[in-house]
Amino acid sequence: MRIVLLGAPGSGKGTQAKKLVDHYGVIQISTGDLLRAAVAAGTPLGLAAKTAMDSGQLVSDDIVLGMIKERLNQADTQRGYILDGFPRNLAQAEALDGLLGELQQTLEAAILLDIPFEDLMQRLTGRQTCADCGAVFNRFTHPSKQPDICDACGGPLIQRGDDNEATVSKRLTVFEEQTAPLIAFYADQGKLFRIDGTRPIDTITEEFHDVIERMKS
Ligand SMILES: [Zn+2]
User: 13 near 120, Cβ under 8 Å?
Assistant: First the structure.
């Protein structure tokens, strides 16, 4: 199994990726994890990434691609993998195809966990965490019984600073702008599958299994 998982921040992509890893025994390759590991290990790519991040810049496609290439050359990828957070734009998707060509592999599917913008806004801007026990609520989708008070321990519920509407809206807009060309790219290749991400977690997981079974046949 070699798939790309596409989904906006707040789509539940990470949750589903973990379930697929458990179910199919494949590995999850996340750009975020690779970056952190490379920086911590002080590899040449890690150092280059750190330099970019320290100066407030995005890590370049070359660095990200270099890390993906190193990762895909490791033996544990033989049973399959789920790419999570990569490719992030059209240039990376084209480069990934080139890289897979070198490795004599093909990508089987790009699965999009599809959720309307407004739902994502609610999921991300409504998040509240208990300052005392860490319990998580959502003002819209999973409210506490009393506003701003934790059901579990009575502690105060707080919102993260970067979960405000303006910041979230900007993040989602950037995501949509970058992802739209990717969706078209994989649709043209006949590899795009859409899953309705508004349904319950277990229903979504079942649909992932359906898509993967169809992909195999
Ligand atoms: Zn609490």
Answer: no
